[in-house]
């Protein structure tokens, strides 16, 4: 591969990087258009705007307006049916300038090559994920989240694969690959394999979850390290967020990953040329593919870049957890069908102690209404909350959510005509509900399903009206979805080797809730509605059983 | 047979005539032509056209056995299958109308074939099937994949280009193969159809290693009956072979945008084809009247004007009697917006439904013009025709004519033809939703995850012309301006193809059947083996030898009348 072996080209790239290092206010759209045109690409722009449901305090965004610039390198003698995407988010400030510079350098180099069989789209997106969402929606002409964007003028057919580039300095010590996408979707494992193979070939350190691979698998510490890496992946996947700009591609069945340059204190540094060679190699490989990446796994967990745990290994663990629920349900079913025969002697008892399924309707409806309130109220009533309390909109939303969540616990519990049988029917229904819910969640997003199963299954299996009330109530609350999230935040920080104090953790927890909601409204993440509309009501049913009178 | 007699007279002509082609001049004529146009994007468009006109009659079972310039293989095809018009094109790449403007002869990516049969043909479908197989052999292409599932009978979009007023679309067949890959093996048989082969004349330039090192490559063959003279008293057959190629000066790695015939084709021209009555090179110098953008060397005093595609263009003409090597310097200019262009794409996500969007742009500032849109969609995309919407400038645009033929599973594709009026300076969007069918497992291609192709839409239109078009057909016109017959002065005929689509269908994981087959075979082998063993082996209970004491006891018992032990 001859990228940048030519000193002139190398000089050109360096000039470009220096130009980009000069501080820029906003995205230099005109400059990008001109530069891309000069490199022989067909250049188009797309403008978009989006008002967030409530201000995002992490990134300081509320009303977002921006422009995406993309240039298409047309493959010679190709009928515009397939395309590959290389994207670099351009943020205000100079966070990602090196990536944009490298992207332009690659565009220049790729343009002069003859071997392309697929169009290559070089995309510089503003406001990272929001810009990416606008571009993808424009490209596929869908509108999932109600964003305003101008239609795209140029297209390259169906996109086969995409890489997003994030570099913060012109030299890096290692490259990190991010795979977790929206709703815990993952790209085909072959994309990660491709990255790993090229890193090995070129001799660049490569990491996943920011953790290097260790060679001592057998030792306890090596095993511990791998488990930590995998746990990080599980936590990230369970969050359902896109952990890089690539995350939104996965919805459209486009294999995508984010490549991040990490500059740490190691001695051995890699320059932009080497990263360029790596990307060139990956794009040539992807260019040569006849079919989409499909041969390898779509469901996997990675303890390191070179090892994976396939669905066949981790699903049984979840299956064993779910079986507990089913066995419990079977037990209750047997008890319920055995009951009438026992009370056959009592003439009046037959009708009274045979509660129909309809009797559990009231708690089901009440809990689901609470869930619906949890889903709707925080965003709807933010103005009211801001008027009456001295809080910002974001705080108002999060605190309303917590308030609704807590208020759900105090809802009037069902009064029942069937003191003995009623809770059994309710528990039977709740157990089956939970089993189906967790099963479906685990199929879509294993990590989320597994974490929920770990916390909810013991509570669900254990709870009856006859256990000690105070202790069980504490136990049940501690295992509720909100507390699971709180523990997860601390656990995640621990795994990242950045432990936080309780105070900071609590603030982090609040911002995580806000982020989760924003992910739903901005990108269509399903975790918030899943928890609010299904998991929380289901948990409320068990809470109801505990306080059965 | 009056025709035959005439043919014989021409054959008996004096072969020692001074003109090598002298005595055939009335009867058979061969012209060759190359047009080079520097495009605004900085690319170079080269278009070859070779035309053989033969005054003969293939129709009505007339046996033609003596061939001279006209290729015999095609002549036999015409007479055997009673073809009235045949148009076939092989294209690699997509013509970028936005950057390059209109091509002289448009063609969609892949292979396209459309044929008008004579009305004497009784079973058109069978003839069509046979014809595609024969053509597949002649052109070394996979035209044999044309079957009823990708054959159409457009009612309005493809009218005969030659003479004849028969327009009953029962005798028309149209098919495209968007996946066909065009390469050297298609070029060689195409070159063999030329009278001089690639030995002399313009065809010397057609070297595959350069032609397939370009941005666009298209070759076509068009056979049609044409008028012999202005009065059109008698007809003759025209075979037109065209080859269009666009060279990308950017990728050829030249820092200076300089081109020459040698740089583009790695050959230079030395002589015309001796059989050709005319052999010319036209270079479009319209944008360069004062030679400020590029200069030609050697310079030619010969200038010619021609009205082509609604525009009057000036050409420098080289007659191939002297040696030519031209080289120019071309800087990139502004993007010229073509009056009509179109694009098409699939929207939505997931593998259940989707939507096809076709956008048609009318860039004319104040005139609207009609277009005919022909859409053919394979049966495995089930069109929801009730969702068909045509919107221009935010308002519904009702088509004045719609011809829709629904698909039949595994038998025929959807056919949708619409006559639309494009308002001035507007984008017209045609959308229709579809559902993706689940195929039977044997119907998947060997590479199902690549996706399935949907052929290009065809947009045929009468685009308003900026200058008066020439309506009378004369032989003196350059070839590139005389392909589409022109009926009126104010507009010209243009055909635009959209890009083909690549659609993913729900695809089962084909590694699973493989595993299942392996597993089943093992189970069957083990199960069958043991069962067969059990069934065929004869079992006999082996009587152990009873001991001496038992035998004695049994004898005693038998004597007592008691059953033995």
UniProtKB/TrEMBL annotation, chain A:
Record-level GO BP terms: attachment of GPI anchor to protein; GPI anchor biosynthetic process
GO cellular component, one term: GPI-anchor transamidase complex
Pathway(s) per entry: Glycolipid biosynthesis; glycosylphosphatidylinositol-anchor biosynthesis
Keyword line: Disulfide bond, Endoplasmic reticulum, Glycoprotein, GPI-anchor biosynthesis, Membrane, Transmembrane, Transmembrane helix
Principal cellular location given in the protein's record: endoplasmic reticulum
Subunit structure: Heteropentamer. Part of the GPI-anchor transamidase complex, consisting of PIGK, PIGT, PIGS, PIGU and GAA1. Interacts with PIGK.
PANTHER family noted in UniProt: GLYCOSYLPHOSPHATIDYLINOSITOL ANCHOR ATTACHMENT 1 PROTEIN
Record protein name field: GPI-anchor transamidase component GPAA1
Organism: Oryzias sinensis
UniProtKB/TrEMBL annotation, chain B:
Domain of life assignment: Eukaryota
One record GO biological process: attachment of GPI anchor to protein
Signal peptide positions on this chain: none
GO CC terms of this entry: GPI-anchor transamidase complex
Name under which the protein is recorded: Phosphatidylinositol glycan anchor biosynthesis, class T
Organism: Oryzias sinensis (Chinese medaka)
Lineage of producing organism: Eukaryota, Metazoa, Chordata, Craniata, Vertebrata
